[in-house]
Design brief:
Blueprint lengths: L2 E5 L3 H4 L5 E2 L2 E2 L2 E5 L2 H9 L5 E4 L4 H6 L7 E4 L4 H37 L2 H6 L4 H12 L16 H32 L1 H6 L5 H31 L7 H25 L2 H18 L14 H6 L1 H13 L5 H34 L1
Parallel strand pairs: 1-4, 1-5
Antiparallel strand pairs: 2-3, 5-6
């Protein structure tokens, strides 16, 4: 329910108190003595909009002249601005329609009294025909809204997919990077190099264990959402494949960072520096529609952002697999490239241990 602010009570604004939708008040109205105090309340977030009726508004309107209303909105939150401005402007739009209809009815009453009868007979006109022409001139296009029950994401579904995105963006990258460096600092990898087991066996085991931990975390999160909120997502086979590819990309990126920095503290800092902005800019915790235009390519082309977007299209909006097949191919190629880079850096780190 938008909270509107008015200047000190005027008859023009009292009608807003009585505006209802399905027996619920559409506006919560607060009255102010001056414009500055109303605008201060708007800036501080106490109200959603300010409506100012100039002096003589009612007289101007009822005399048939054009009246003016001043609307103030806070645009700091684009989503709230769109909602509030849409409701307020929609109210005035409906008010204008009703006033046009009443004016036309008044004009028709005068026309019936004073319009020459011979003209009506000669041109074969009726009152209803004149009414239709007058309505068309006042409102040339009538928009009739039809409701279609489309597939939409519930807030819980969006948050559940955001949780999955956090797992394969932040948790996976950090786990594989710091975990590998911990083993290097403990001397585990050096002992493995000197044993029949190879450093590649260690790497495969580390990646598999990381993937297993992340998968368990995701399953627990999905079950928790179902238990607490009564709603969750059960990924399809292709959905799990997307999660696997995204996790592999994140592991490759985390391993590359770890092998490049060779420090747990530096790896943690770099992972935080990369992942924290991407949680917002890659469409993971913020819907892509709410992102600024310059950030939307990140959500569309950064592999992890694109993977989560395709996962949502597949699991929430039930899009066919053929629609996201090209995206999965692109994400797979990006993952392969990052994996090759990570392996090269890992091999370089292993050779330094052998020296």
């Amino acid at each position: 329910m938008p909270i509107l602010g008015f200047l000190h009570p005027r008859p023009e604004g009292r009608g807003f108190h009585e505006v209802t939708l399905e027996e619920t008040n559409l506006f919560n109205v607060l009255e102010f003595k001056d414009e500055s105090s109303a605008l201060e309340a708007l800036k501080s977030g106490k109200i959603d909009a300010v409506v100012v009726f100039p002096k003589g508004f009612g007289t101007t309107l009822t005399s048939g002249r054009q009246a003016r209303v001043y609307l103030y909105f806070d645009k700091s939150d684009p989503q709230d601005y769109q909602i509030v401005s849409g409701v307020v402007k929609g109210f005035f739009g409906e008010m204008e329609k009703e006033m046009r209809r009443r004016r036309i009815e008044m004009q028709l009453e005068y026309m019936e009294l004073y319009f020459p009868k011979w003209a009506i007979a000669e041109y074969n006109l009726t009152t209803e025909m004149i009414r239709e022409y007058m309505l068309a001139s006042a409102e040339p296009i009538v928009i009739e809204e039809k409701e279609v029950e489309g597939k939409t994401a519930t807030p819980i579904q969006f948050y559940v997919t955001s949780f999955i995105g956090i797992q394969f963006l932040f948790a996976t990258m950090l786990t594989i990077g710091t975990g590998t460096l911990e083993e290097i600092e403990k001397g585990t990898l050096r002992r493995i190099v000197a044993s029949p087991a190879t450093a590649w066996d260690f790497l495969m085991g580390k990646m598999l264990s990381t993937f297993l931990v992340i998968m368990i975390s995701i399953v627990v999160g999905l079950a928790y959402a179902k238990f607490v909120f009564g709603e969750t997502i059960v990924p399809s086979l292709l959905g799990w494949i997307i999660i696997f590819i995204a996790s592999l990309f994140s592991m490759s990126l985390g391993l590359a960072i770890a092998m490049g920095t060779r420090s747990i503290r530096s790896t943690t800092a770099v992972v935080n520096f990369i992942s924290m902005p991407l949680l917002f800019l890659a469409g993971i915790v913020v819907p892509e529609s709410a992102l600024p235009k310059w950030a939307r390519p990140i959500a569309n082309y950064f592999p992890l952002g694109r993977a989560l977007k395709d996962f949502r299209l597949l699991e929430i909006y039930n899009r066919p697999a053929s629609e996201i097949a090209s995206d999965i191919l692109w994400i797979g190629l990006a993952t392969l490239t990052s994996l090759i880079i990570a392996v090269v850096l890992y091999n370089w780190a292993v050779k330094r241990l052998e020296i």
